[in-house]
Amino acid sequence: MTETTSGPARGSRAKGSKANNGLRIERIHTTPGVHPYDEVNWERRDVVMTNWRDGSINFEQRGVEFPDFWSVNAVNIVTSKYFRGAVGTPQRENSLKQLIDRVVKTYRAAGEKHGYFASPADAEIFEHELAYAVLHQIFAFNSPVWFNVGTKQPQQVSACFILSVDDSMESILDWYKEEGMIFKGGSGAGLNLSRIRSSKELLSSGGNASGPVSFMRGADASAGTIKSGGATRRAAKMVVLDVDHPDVEAFIDTKVKEEEKIRALRDAGFDMDLGGEDIASVQYQNANNSVRVNDEFMKAVESGSKFALRARMTGEVVEEVDARQLFHKMAEAAHVCADPGIQYDDTINHWHTSPETGRITASNPCSEYMHLDNSSCNLASLNLMKFLRDDTAADSGSAAWGNMSFDAERFAKVTELVITAMDISICFADFPTEKIGETTRAFRQLGIGYANLGALLMATGHAYDSDGGRALAGAITSLMTGTSYKRSAELAAVVGPYEGYARNAEAHRRVMKQHGDANDAATRMDDLDTPVWAAATEAWQDVQRLGKKNGFRNAQASVLAPTGTIGLMMDCDTTGVEPDLALVKFKKLVGGGSMQIVNNTVPKALKRLGYQPEQVEAIVEHIAEHGNVVNAPGLKPEHYEVFDCAMGERSISPMGHVRMMAAAQPFLSGAISKTVNMPASSTVEDVEEIYLQGWKLGTKALAVYVENSKVGQPLSAKAKEEKKAEAPEPEKVVEYRPVRRRLPKGRPGITTSFTVGGAEGYMTANSYPDDGLGEVFLKMSKQGSTLAGMMDAFSIAVSVGLQYGVPLETYVSKFTNMRFEPAGMTDDTDVRMAQSIVDYIFRRLALDFLPFETRSALGIHSAAERQRHLETGSYEASEEEFDADALAQSAPKAEQAGQSAQAGQSAPKEEVKDAKDTQRAASEPEAAAPAPREAHNSTELMEMQLGLNADAPLCFSCGTKMRRAGSCYLCEGCGSTSGCS
């Protein structure tokens, strides 16, 4: 294990603390004198990621270097999401070694600078062990670490933020600004609006206050705009309101009323499908909403008594409501549109380590991080399957069970390593606001967690909804958090406790005892979980002993996050605390293509349950054909539950999800990101029972989702036709047609010569004197040739479209990334590579005529902008760079191109009715049908097998259907998430 050595204090530590000389780091996986990179086989691969709906290439980088055991999906995700540098330039990372070195060497350097290690040799072991663990997919930091650490841009390491807002216009406007800056960086934030006075209270001027719900509109619109601005991820946010706020009913109703609006507009013929052009008019869709309830309210619900809503300024009772009716209203809203979720305030603050500084009032967007206002948390997750051994003998500290063992000792060592690294990151991290930076450095909140729990349980023959499964999950969670706080106490001896510890020492030690008591009281079920509980018990005893002596380095240690993108990076079958989605998955193949496979954990589970190889083969074949185990040849019915999944023929009951959360919650500093899936047949009373049991079982937060409850889902073409047939014919139909706007006789223009893959050509782009691009002429090959004729026809078609009001960005989005010969290198410094002549032409037109924000959202940047991104982390020029010389240089080209107005003019609002209907039908996704005809990921494959339509949005990056990951959504195709891991 890791030890500390005594000696003079050095490094960064809290004032007045005593410190030792540094940590002694013990090897876990590595060999002295051998670098981890030298122990694996490396290979070069080509990463080409396409949008399957239109065939366009979303991302391409060839010749990247990865270990041969990394899956195609993991390689694609890491290359496209985490490699830094402009694609096609020498500065672009092209090897996993570069990515790991960029991050791990930064951590080592910071650890040495701040006195974490006893010697340079210990620092080297730390670096090698950390690199080995990432290389072998044993753990992963959250995405911001891979985005930012070791680059020239701000070293933001946190994915989760909590803001605060007070009852003043200045504070509300600060909220808008701070939230926007966090969204711009691709992260999410949450906050509680309960300090804002209600619409039933008076302002100092005598008028009525607007209330928090009104201010939510502005924040929602801001999030929606920033979301579509080309960031790496969608904006994610959480809005919380206390149950005793006088506007709580209006808060509960916000999304319900918007769902009614969607229904009305959809029935009137507007495009309200997911991603539809008219869905943007719907409000409050960019946030998860949660009501913060207290024990007083929940007891009033049980007894059927009244509950007081109180003024924010005076605390006086504004009105009394029936607690059961209000609770029913919450459940009714969640049943209709999945919001609001519920957070249990007294439970949350009962486990709060720093109550003397302030209460916990809110959470991050996915509900796993809960701590002080204006704070942040950086996350990392362990891959539990990497600690499952298939053998018959257990080493010291391991738990043997049949032919399975969970390596508890190695799990604890890796946990210590990761916690050390996570704490080091706070020493050099940057934060989006000064207040968040101050709070995070003072309390050093960490969020270690895990992924692949569902796969681990299945592989060991445990049903997810079983006492044995919950016991193993609880034991692992307890060992992880106990070990984390033990290491935190050891770090406190070396570099000092967190600044806020002295004021909160008594409360912090009380919470540590609560964790230890919960560990002692937990039920031991079998030979697999019992030794893990024993190791956890020892860890909690060390926590209390060392904590009393040294204090703690971190106010928080653990959460269970969604582990979306990083779960794909680690090749995990399941995310966070979730069970498996389905038994059959999609697997991408080297060289392109994909195949469907039965989960690798299924054969392991069958082997553990005692089935012979021939029986295993027959059962796996049955699952491959039917997607479930029902009536599988030779499989005992009592073993069916082991293979229950989140969805399908045998889906886990809603209470099964709640009971699993309750099993892990007492051993976590924070909470759990998870949505309780409920079948379409669920009632409002079922939702009430889930919310009530969540409180009784001690969870900190819950969200539910009733299948097919939301209106904004893709509709089948047939359904649309039926609705159209049912609608009565209007008495009068007025059709509006666009008007062609011809260019004047004299018009400004640009003529560009170009070469694509050796083929030469000329393009002339003429513009309106005051309103952007109006026509394009293309010349290639000799007059009279087929290519010249096609280019002439294509030019005329595009030009006429532009003159009828088709925005240039529409053409750019459709024709860029179109791939055909000739293709390859160009002679244009801004567009070095082109997939085709058409790809080049519209990239050049975008650079010449589209505003920066529009083309940046399409991923089109000039060479200067890409270089600026390498140097500063931003494509945009600073104000200082817009000097007189730059303006003088750009003026002639702007004048020549006629760019006095934006090139991307809007199309007429009213279009030809038949054309609009045709366009909608053509854009209808295949997933709209009850079961898609062709699957492109595991979610759609499950839809085909089960004959149902999963309620999930389409990925905004690649167009495939996403799947749930905790309280968020994850795209298996490209790794994009709607959350914060």
TrEMBL record:
Residues 896-907, 920-932 have a biased composition (Low complexity). Residues 747-847 form the TSCPD domain. Residues 158-705 form the Ribonucleotide reductase large subunit C-terminal domain. It is an enzyme of class 1 (oxidoreductase). SUPFAM superfamilies: PFL-like glycyl radical enzymes. Residues 47-137 form the Ribonucleotide reductase class II vitamin B12-dependent N-terminal domain. It catalyses: a 2'-deoxyribonucleoside 5'-diphosphate + [thioredoxin]-disulfide + H2O = a ribonucleoside 5'-diphosphate + [thioredoxin]-dithiol. Residues 908-919 have a biased composition (Basic and acidic residues). Keywords: Cobalamin, Cobalt, Disulfide bond, DNA synthesis, Nucleotide-binding, Oxidoreductase. Residues 1-24, 871-935 are annotated as: Disordered. GO terms for molecular function: ribonucleoside-diphosphate reductase activity, thioredoxin disulfide as acceptor. InterPro entries: RdRp_reductase_class-2, RNR_2_N, RNR_lg_C, RNR_NrdJ/NrdZ, TSCPD_dom. Its cofactor is adenosylcob(III)alamin. Its EC number is 1.17.4.1. It comes from the Bacteria. Catalyzes the reduction of ribonucleotides to deoxyribonucleotides. May function to provide a pool of deoxyribonucleotide precursors for DNA repair during oxygen limitation and/or for immediate growth after restoration of oxygen. Belongs to the ribonucleoside diphosphate reductase class-2 family. This is Vitamin B12-dependent ribonucleotide reductase. It comes from Streptomyces spirodelae. The lineage of its organism: Bacteria, Bacillati, Actinomycetota, Actinomycetes, Kitasatosporales.
